[in-house]
Amino acid sequence: APFLMAAFLLGFICFPAQSDDEIGASFADLLDELTVSDFQSKTDAVHFLEQSGDPRAPAVLQAMLDGRLYYHKEDKTIVIVERIESGFHLTDVLTESDLGTAGRRDVKKISVNNRLRSAIRSAIARLSLTNPNAKLRLAAVKQMFRDANPETSVLLREMLEREKDRRVIDAIRAVVALTELESENVDTRLSAIETLQGSLETEVRIKLVALTGLDAEGNYVEVNGIVREAALEVLRGIDR
C-alpha cells in the first residue's frame, strides 16, 4: 500500500495534465487505499482525495466520517450505504450508480480510528472553506475548533486575507487564537486570549479551563501568572 501511494504521488506531481480516464483511475486507486488495514496509508489517501479536485471526493469523505463507506466483499467495489431493514442500500462511489441492496455479511465497513477521523474532519472543512455560501464557510471554520493546529492556522490565515463576511472573520480569528495559546511567546498567548474574549464556542472554554488548571504533578499548565489571570478573566466573562 505505501508503494502504491508513492507511485500515485509521483504521478500526481509529474503528470498534472490527465485525461478523464486517467483521473478516474487515480480516484479509483485512492479509493482502494481506503480499504487497507494501515491507517497511515488511509490518512495519506484522505489528503490526496481532498487535493484531487474530484467532485465525488466530498461525499466519500463525509460517508467515511459517518461510518457509511463500505466495500463489497465479492468484488471490492467501494460503496456508500444507507441502512434498511434487510441490510443496506448501496451506491457505487465511482459510477454513482444504484447497486440495489445487500445483506450485512456481503459488505465490510471501511474502518476509521480517532486520528484518521480528525484528518477527515479537517479535509471536509478545508473543502468547504471556499464555498460561495458564507453560512457554509462559517460552519466549516467552526468545525476546525475541534482540530485546531498549526497547519489549520496557516490555512485560515490565508483565507482571512480574502474573507469578507464578519462572522466568518471572527470565527477564523478565534480558531487561529486557539492555536496561538500553544505559543512559547507570552505576548502571543496574551493576544490570543484577548481575541477569545466573549467567545461562546465550547472548545474555547475547554481550552481556557485546561490552560488555567493543574497538570498531573500539581503544577499550573500555564506557568506565566499574567497569562493565567488573563485567561481566568475571559472565563469569568464567558460564565456570566
Describe the fold and architecture.
It comes from marine metagenome. This is HEAT repeat domain-containing protein. The protein folds into two domains: 2-109, no CATH class; 131-239, no CATH class. The chain has eleven helices and five strands; from the N terminus they run H-H-H-H-E-E-E-E-E-H-H-H-H-H-H-H. The chain has helices at 2-14, 20-33, 39-52, 57-65, 114-128, 134-143, 150-160, 166-180, 186-195, 202-212, 225-239, and strands spanning 69-72, 78-84, 87-92, 98-102, 107-109. The chain has a five-stranded antiparallel β-sheet with strand order 4-3-2-1-5. Helix 5 runs antiparallel to helix 6 (134-143).
Return the structural class. alpha+beta
Mean pLDDT: 89
Helix content: 55-70%
Largest sheet: 5 strands, antiparallel
Give the spatial strand order of the biggest sheet: 4-3-2-1-5
Q: How many domains would you count in the coordinates?
A: 2
The best one-word shape is: elongated
Percent of residues in β-strands: 5-15%
Q: How many angstroms does the end-to-end distance come to? A: 53 Å
> Number of DSSP helices?
11
Task: Count all strands and give the number.
Answer: 5
Low-confidence stretches: 2-25
Strand-and-helix sequence, N→C?
A: HHHHEEEEEHHHHHHH
Rounded Rg:
22 Å
Protein name: HEAT repeat domain-containing protein
